[in-house]
Design goal:
Number of strands: 11
Low-confidence stretches: none
Strand order of the largest sheet: 6-5-8-9
Number of domains: 2
Number of helices: 6
Structural class: alpha+beta
């Protein structure tokens, strides 16, 4: 999952670390919103995103490619122009989830979770006088700082050609993905509770689900959907705006890059409490797709999306006049 696909952390993640979150949120007056629009998790995403961008600024008078010596680049290209801060990455080039190990959290996910908890208890403490939440705020603030230092040591998981997920929450003009994209038509299916998601992929690079060539996006939001008896699922992506392989018209201030082109999409369905499976044997290049019968609940399973091309080191420099 790319950093822009969602808020990265959620109420469920915070509860894994601190089981008191729900109780404190509901007891506060007014209640503290933990997840969703205008929430603590969304605020943590915004602040941590800005911290990443700030730490990745490179003071240079020329564009410096990743992996190229700054002195060599300057010697070849410097023409006496003014120096400037040149961004080294965009947030949609940051891979937020762990790609190497199963059932674990990435350094970015842990950092956002502890940052969100610090913000949560800061908010809770501000509503009371001389309360115990101040201690929890200080503790989680220290944990968030520790996770940030860990991330700086490991490097920022970075991808050269990103492909944002369908309905990417923080993407530019990504469109919408919701239950309204799902419907049923008469067919041979049986009544059952399902989970539904889709992914994009670039047909010029994608090989197969066993070898995605790093050209398949992370999943859309996973939606719960009830399939009635004597019906089959139909999915529409008409409300989405698949990436077209061109950089958004927002200028070069945050760096230049070439995103992948979402030429096709993959449909994933699963039982209410299980994994999601690939449903179409051929690429889907149309705006709608209708299953022939009940979903296939075996075969290739939904993954996490793109993995990093490299770990982008943080600058550890102090500028001087």
């Amino acid at each position: 999952m790319l950093f822009t696909d969602s808020d990265v952390t959620s109420a469920a993640d915070l509860l894994q670390i601190d089981s008191e979150v729900s109780t404190v949120a509901n007891a506060s007056k007014p209640a503290i919103v933990v997840d969703g629009a205008g929430s603590i998790c969304e605020l943590a995403w915004r602040q941590c995103g800005q911290k990443i961008l700030t730490a990745q600024q490179l003071y240079s008078s020329v564009f410096v490619a990743v992996g190229t010596s700054g002195s060599h680049q300057a010697a070849v290209n410097y023409i006496g122009g003014p120096a400037r801060n040149q961004a080294r990455t965009r947030l949609n080039q940051v891979v937020a989830t762990e790609s190497q190990y199963a059932n674990t959290s990435s350094p970015i996910q842990l950092w956002l979770a502890y940052s969100a908890l610090a913000m949560f208890y800061r908010d809770a403490s501000a509503r009371k006088g001389n309360d115990r939440f101040q201690e929890k705020y200080n503790r989680y603030l220290e944990n968030a700082d520790f996770q940030w230092r860990q991330l700086r040591q490991l490097g920022l998981p970075w991808i050269a050609q990103p492909l944002e997920a369908p309905g990417s929450k923080h993407g530019v003009n990504a469109g919408t993905w919701a239950v309204a994209n799902l419907s049923t038509v008469a067919g041979s299916g049986t009544e059952q509770a399902l989970q539904v998601a889709i992914t994009y992929y670039d047909g010029s690079k994608y090989i197969s689900e066993a070898n995605t060539a790093n050209a398949e996006s992370g999943p859309s939001e996973i939606l719960a959907f009830a399939q009635p008896d004597a019906s089959v699922v139909r999915v529409s992506i008409a409300s989405l705006n698949p990436p077209a392989g061109v950089m958004p018209q927002v200028g070069l201030s945050q760096g230049a890059y070439t995103p992948l082109n979402a030429t096709h999409w993959i449909l994933w369905l699963g039982a209410a409490a299980g994994p999601l499976y690939w449903q179409a044997a051929v690429p889907i290049g149309t705006k709608t797709f209708t299953l022939a019968g009940d979903p296939v609940l075996s075969g290739a399973m939904l993954g996490a999306g793109q993995y990093p091309d490299l770990l982008l080191v943080f600058q550890n420099l102090v500028g001087r006049g």
